[in-house]
Specification:
The chain is an alpha/beta fold and about 140 residues long. Helix content is about 45%, strand content about 15%. The chain has one domain: Ribose 5-phosphate Isomerase B, Chain: A, CATH 3.40.1400.10. The structure holds D-ribose.
Length: about 140
């Protein structure tokens, strides 16, 4: 899977760990930054990752900021992109199964790194179930 990842200064370490984890699992990772702890604006990175998904350059996106919330707000503004903040494995699976989300948002100041990697694995391993959920997802659009 082609996965674009991005973060602000609050998520650099977790984003790095996620990138290495997903690359080790065989995924093609496009790291769109940020790469340092200098303060940056999360919408710039949220837009970059969501834009890559919308453009078909990535199959999925993973975004990290302090809470994940600002990244989700940003990513959901990009036409055709559905993003969700997850702090648990069940939700990470369900946003794919039922909501056909392409972008996972994590809060590095909320969710510990071990759980975050489990959440990422659940997200990447899940697919949209279609059926009755297709109608609902179309209504989001
Ligand atoms: C940055 O301090 C913080 O506001 C940001 O990482 C994020 O939590 C916003 O949603």
């Amino acid at each position: 899977m082609r996965i674009a990842i991005g973060c602000d200064h609050g998520g650099v370490e977790l984003k790095q760990a996620i990138g290495e984890h997903l690359a080790a699992a065989g995924h093609d990772i496009n790291d769109l930054g940020t790469h340092a702890s200098d303060s940056v604006d999360y919408p710039d990175y949220g837009k970059a990752v969501a834009g890559a998904v919308a453009a078909g350059e990535a199959d999925r996106g993973v975004l990290v900021c302090g809470t994940g919330q600002g990244m989700a707000m940003t990513a959901n503004k990009v036409d055709g992109v559905r993003a969700g903040v997850c702090g648990d494995v069940f939700s990470a699976r369900m946003i794919c199964n039922h909501n056909n989300a392409q972008v996972l948002c994590l809060g590095a100041r909320v969710t510990g790194p071990s759980l975050a990697l489990e959440i990422v694995d659940a997200f990447v391993g899940a697919d949209f179930e279609g059926g009755r959920h297709s109608r609902r997802v179309e209504k989001i659009g």
